Amino acid sequence: MTDFSERRSEIDRARQKKMSELMAEYDKNVYYPAKIALIEDCNKIGHYGGKYQDNGFGWSWYYCSGCGVRYNINGPNGETKHA
Ligand SMILES: [Zn+2]
Fold this sequence. Notes:
By secondary structure, the chain is of the alpha+beta class. The protein folds into 2 domains: 1-45; 48-83. It is built from 1 helix and 4 strands; from the N terminus they run H-E-E-E-E. It has one helix at residues 4-45; strands spanning 52-54, 60-63, 70-74, 80-81. The chain has a 4-stranded antiparallel sheet, with no helix packed on it. It is flat, with a radius of gyration of 18 Å. It binds zinc ion (ZN). Zinc ion (ZN) binds next to loops. The site of zinc ion has 6 residues, from loops.
C-alpha cells in the first residue's frame, strides 16, 4: 500500500526547496530590503491594530494591521520587546 501522505509531503518539500532556491537572490536583494523599509516606515508612525496572539507560555503580542510585524510583545516575567 502506498503511503500517499508521505509521498505528498515529499513532493511538497521538493517544490518548497526549489522555490527557495529560485527566490533566494530576489529575496535577498528585493523582498527583504522592501519588507524592512516597510516595517521601519510603519514604526515611525507607530504600529497599530491587528490580531492579539498568546502562545500559552505567558508571551503575548499583536500583529500590526499595517506592516504585519509583531509588536507590544510581553513576556511572563515582565519582559517587553518592541518591533
Ligand atoms: Zn506596523
